[in-house]
Amino acid sequence: MKSVNKKIVLLGNEGVGKTSLVKQYVNSIFSDEYLTTIGIKISKKTIQIGEVAVNLMLWDIAGNMMNKTLYNNYLQGAHGILLVADAMRYETYESILLEKENHLSNDFKNAVTCVIINKSDLIPEADADYLKAFKYDYLTSAKNGDHVELAFQSMAEQILETSRT
Amino acid sequence: MNHLKTIEDLKIEIVKLEIENEKLRHENSQLTEKSEQLKALNVKKTIEAQDAQLIKYNKELEQFTYVATHDLKSPLANIQGYLDLLEIDLVDPNPEVLDSLKWLKYSVSEARQVIHELTNALKARNSKEELLKVINLEELVESILSGMRSTILKYNVIFICDFTEINEFDYYPVALRSILQNIISNAIQYSSETDFPEVKITTFQQLQEVHIKVQDNGVGIDLAANESKVFGLFKRVNNDDNGSGIGMYIVNKLLENYGGKLELNSILGKGSEFTVIIPYKNNEISTLNTTL
To answer: What percentage of chain A carries pLDDT values higher than 90?
Structure first.
């Protein structure tokens, strides 16, 4: 069986839930206790796409690292970039849009990029228009697991598709 | 005739002398035996005296640890209580104050947890097996780094943690925490002197061993000149004024006591790589890797 390694980087401000998304996806766990990520944490999950075993290397990069000098070094070799924002903090959405437009679209244009709006469980049910201000690829909840698997799986499929073409 | 008599006399004399010689040999052997017994008795007495002294020291040390851990409990509980009150009393605090408060509370809670673990370790001191627990390295390192967060931020050290090869294994949590805390603290101290400090912590499994590697891009050590100093008590390398020279001594002693070893590679000006090698006791390989 063919096996490939693919690097996916998670970016976004502090507290948007990048680590929780990875933990939910890899270990199916969620903790309410919030600890800011220090530096970079690498996790791995192997999934099957068709005949290929895909080793997803998930690089969870601390929110405060986006303004560091060597930040670009850690994005090198990324096949996919997941930009994560907090549904309850619009400024985190603006921040990832800026990052995408000013930086990623130029320096990492070959990487598959997706926008995730996380913490969907906190969106008021009565407010139907709440999400109109956001343009996103996936609406997830690391807390209850909604669409988390779908987001990572779709990204992996897109990466494989891109590498074939 | 006289001549013959003399020969006979000599023969008798020889026999007498042989008998005498045999007696002396026997006495000598007895004396040697007694001397050996006396020596053994002296050694035994010395060992017994040293044993008694060691038992006394151990008891004193144990008592000190009990008193220290016990006496630290109440002030820490006090600090925690006041932090809770402060949190309630704060009116419209800015996010930075709230963040500092959160980390203060976290650090106090970690200190209380360490004391709790130390107390348990003391209670189970006669049975090392009781202290053997499944370690989740990601959680342990996260807790250690969180405890050092302000220093890490101050020196802008970037940590890269990759435990995808092996994350869970059996070992002694109190000992491993102290071992890694000392090595990581060293890595921060020496890499902080470079422009872009970076520390990588990785794991891998080799036969029946778990290797935990802590690699920094700091000032490095001239091993040829300093090898004897690296693990010595109160000895510091590179003539630096930082640190007490106790950390690496503790690491080595803990590994000697709990099973394991430490390997060091370093290039002056390039950085150091400390590898903690401990026996792999878990039957099932557990990693951060999940296969669907």
So the answer is: 71
Q: Name residue A116's beta-bridge partners.
A: A84, A138
pLDDT band (50, 70, 90) for residue A79: very high
H/E stretch holding B5 reads helix B2-89
Instruction: Report how far residue B114's alpha carbon sits from residue A131's, in angstroms, rounded to the nearest whole number.
Output: 45
Structural fold of domain A2-164? Rossmann fold (3.40.50)
Tokens of A107: 């320096």
Cβ contact A40:B158 at 8 Å: yes
CA–CA gap between residue B140 and residue B136 (Å, rounded): 6
Residue B138: band (very low, low, confident or very high) from pLDDT cuts 50, 70, 90 = very high
Q: What is the mean pLDDT of residues B100-107?
A: 86
A44: nearest CB among B106, B157, B289? B289
For A64, nearest residue in chain B (alpha carbons) = B153
Residue in this structure with the two tokens 């990520």, named with its chain if needed = A37
Tell me the nearest-neighbour CA distance from A123 into chain B, angstroms: 22
pLDDT of B285 above 80: no
Residues 6+ apart with CB under 8 A from B140: B173, B176, B177, B180
Q: Could you list the beta-strand ranges (E) of chain A.
A: 2-11, 40-49, 52-61, 80-86, 112-118, 138-139
Rounded Cα distance between A111 and A8, Å, is: 9
Distance from CA of B144 to the nearest CA of A (A): 11
Hey, what are A69's tokens? 């000098």
Angle between helices A148-164 and A18-27 (to 10 degrees): 90
Q: CB-based contacts of A72: which residues, under 8 Å, 6+ apart?
A: A107
User: What does the H/E/C string look like for B58-80?
Assistant: HHHHHHHHHHHHHHHHHHHHHHH
Global pTM value? 0.77
Kindly report, residue by residue over B22-77, the tens digit of the pLDDT: 999 999 999 999 999 999 999 999 999 988 888 888 788 777 877 877 888 888 88
Q: What is the ipTM of this complex?
A: 0.90
CA distance A110 to A162: 9
- Separation between Cα atoms, residue B170 and residue B137, nearest integer Å: 10
Closest in A26, A38, A46 to B146, CB measured = A38
Question: Distance of alpha carbon B143 from its chain centroid, rounded?
Answer: 20
CA B91, B96, B101, B106 dihedral sign is positive
